[in-house]
Amino acid sequence: MSHRRAVAILLGCTFIWGASFVLNKMVLAYTTPLLFMSLRFGCAIVLVSGVYRSTTRRDWVVGLSLGALFGLQLALFFVGLATITPGRSAFLFSVQTPLVPILVLAAHRRAPTARNVVTITAAMIGAWWLTRPAGGAVGFGIGDLATLGSGALAAGYILLASHLGPRHDPLRLLAVQFVAIAGLAALATLLFEHPRIELNLTTMTLTPFLALSSVASFGGQLTGQRLVRATEAALIFALEPVVAAGVSILAFGERFTPGQWLGGTVILAASVAAHLKRR
């Protein structure tokens, strides 16, 4: 597979994820976040059930490790999305992009550059503007903080997927991760949640559909990152909030104030600036 095709796959994943913010929000209106997560990835396990016969012990060791990180990231993401709008969630989640180069430097035991510090600071200022209510007080709520935490974990996942993914078959690694995610979600549902679900057309159609999209998009990420560096992949993923905001405006009529648009724009600008090559 060529590098250009790998980039195209990651772009396709970005558009799927951007649109899924709205679909996830629709399901979360009728179910609790952790229960939805366990059901969605339980369905995903069924979809890839034929893969488990060919998995190796090494696949399970690496896949469960990646899946645990991914599962925690998704749990925070769904908890956040249950309380804030899809567009706002997507912009806040995009702080993963400027974080990736800092994690790359940390992995090589090098101090962050001045540009890294500036872009992260700009992204945080943008996040503050995005969540700042009209009255002027700082508007970070539990949903905002959970989404920022999810974005930070997503940056770590991008780095680990680039490092570990090329050594394994993407589909086998993905199948093992689904087991970890569904298992952690089921356990967290029992420990931390009063599970609730309304069985209707939305939950019964979108849950398996989103499970199928998980196979396509998360599998595509592992496949694409075999040839695309972590920092380059993170820059591609910076398009995700643009797609999510557009879909949310069309589906929910979500509206941003001028200050929120400024905050979202600053986050995206910081994401791009973090990955610009020096001359």
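The above is record 1. Record 2 follows with the same two-line structure.
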Amino acid sequence: MAQTHRRCSVLFVVEDLEAYRPELTGYCYRMLGSAFEAEDAVQDTMIRAWRGLDGFEGRSALRSWLYRIATNVCLTMLDGAQRRARPMDLGPAGSGHATHPGEPRPEQVWTGPIPDQRLWPDHSDPADVIAGRESVRLAFVAALQHLAPRQRAVLILREVLAWSAQEVATLLDTSVAGVNSALQRARATLATVNPAATEPHCPEDEHQKALLSRYVQAFESYDLVALASLLHEEATLSMPPVPLWLRGPADITAWMAGTGNGCRGSRLLPVTANGLPAFGQYRPAAVGHDPWGLIVLEIADGQIVGLASFLDTDRLFSLFGLPSHVD
């Protein structure tokens, strides 16, 4: 009986910890800018929490305790790490007539995408999903990387997760005055970065649905005139891990007609990344279509303002549950 009771208690504690995995993943992703590093950080958090349960003794709320562990894990991972960025942060726009996009750079250079499913499982409250999508937009997460790690933690906890200054001070072992000062500096830095406002993925929005349908039709038929008509005049195209990025419909379509011509005949499968509409792109192969890129769209005022095509398909397509081949 005692052994059965202990087994049940262990299962109950594991379920308690696992219930926090999605929100901790979102927190660590905002801190680290990488879905893969976020998963590693959360797994480390869970292991530390499991090992430290005997010393926990309920002195603080389980959620606060887990966030404390996760914050320490993230701060350790960020110690000495290079700031993650988007291609637009690293240099001027290139030409649509470029013959080479540049040499690929390591994964740790880039702010990467994350599947919505990792942040909000199917049973999530729709209101929470809608509210949370704004704070995982690619532009916002990339902007967060400009902050010093502790400032980043303060801003996320205070302004994204709505913790009180006292709660954050307790978590970071600092004073309320220290938290307020860090928050003020973080806000000032973000104001200089000024991440562009974009619309989250809204499956029920008829206008957005129509825009996405037109995008898929234009891309799959490779109708570059139709595609250009969907782009804002300042729209950007980036292709991590290569550094080349383009601005404006003319350069974007020139690239697609020239060096990027291999995308003709592609097929798109819809997913959702960072609270934004996204597609797995498959280029023609000898038989069927093979993975080429994960395209994340940023939309504002009924036009596409950003196309981020992430080319690390070996890891990303598995992460997003996309098939390895399309017939």
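The first strand starts at residue 231 and ends at 238.
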